[in-house]
Amino acid sequence: MFIAIDAAMFSIICLVMSYYRVTSPQAFGEGQALLSSSTGLLNTLILLSSSYFFAKAVSLARAGAIQQAKRLFQATLMCGVSFVLVKCFEYYEVIQQGGLYSTSTFFSYYYSFTGLHLFHVVLGMVGITVCMRLYCQDQSLTPTGMVFIESAGIYWHLVDMIWIFLFLLIYS
Fold this sequence. Notes:
By secondary structure, this protein is mainly α. Helices cover about 85% and strands about 0% of the residues. The protein has one domain (about 1-170): Four Helix Bundle (Hemerythrin (Met), subunit A) (Up-down Bundle).
């Protein structure tokens, strides 16, 4: 249910951003000009890599290769940390150029929507940590552990997919 609510919420956010982009193209373009599409693309590649690692980890966990799965969960977690660091660097750069939350409607949307997404990335990282700490210590997984890992994977992939939509709306 939580995942469905998040998907609906971010769908509304994408609609709001799309509406603003269409109705205020000049203001949108002025705000967008302060962003680095390269930085946005880097974060996209980081999250796509993280999804690959998580999917492989789930496959390995299903096959009983718990230690190998744990290493890929760690790689996924490092991608999450990298995303957070790159996003913080981007916020710093944009603020240095004068792109504050109160500067324009574009930046109020940009910080609100990307900040909410960033919060969801951190929540996903907590889920990955729980996967590693609680369910990847033994050589076998319980059915409950596998359900938790698969649920965390669905959530992580949703967060990645949401980023792709935000990237396309904000940076392109």
